[in-house]
Write a structure and sequence with these properties.
Low-confidence stretches: 1-14
Shape: globular
Strand content: under 5%
CATH class: Mainly Alpha
CATH architecture: Up-down Bundle
Mean pLDDT: 81
Helix content: over 70%
CATH superfamily: CDP-alcohol phosphotransferase transmembrane (TM) domain
Structural class: mainly alpha
Length: 202
Amino acid sequence: MGAASDPRPPGLFEDRIWTVPNLISLARLACVPWFLWLLFAQHDRWGAALVWGAVGATDWLDGWWARRFGSVSELGKLLDPTADRVVLIVGVFAVGFDGSVPWWLVIAAGLREVLVAGFALALGALGARRIDVTWWGKCATFGLYFSFPLLLAGASDVAVAGGFRVAGWVCAVPSLALSYLSAVQYAPLGLRALREGRAERG
């Protein structure tokens, strides 16, 4: 008897490494040292803001490509959110040390990311299945991706820095509030993932 046909699109869930989405995620991670070099070695806040803004603007690209062209992989499921966390956390604390953004905002944004990441690691260690990023969480991350580069540009010496600063605060306040609301949303999702993960292993 021949093997049963698989109804899933070919290649959709293959455990591959060198896919376009994974390369996009790796490229985004590779921009982190470039951003830090511009900010601290060249003291170029405007250039650093452009690099960080470009990396944030491509936040959706790797996931969209994976779903659109059937390039989902197990590595990609881990690499995409990891790239998001690394880019955001490193960037947020970098602009705090640079003095472009007040520390209360840095701590508030960074603490949320650390709490969510720690919660996910703890659940994984306890046997929970992986939790997908929620739509609200994605919106909050996307908003913060733009607010911090805008605030960084607002602290630069370009002629329109004042406008960037205002836009940055307009974006930062609701995005920060949404990020904590979405973090609360992960609590029941995490408990359900823990029950389901243990049930699958049992």
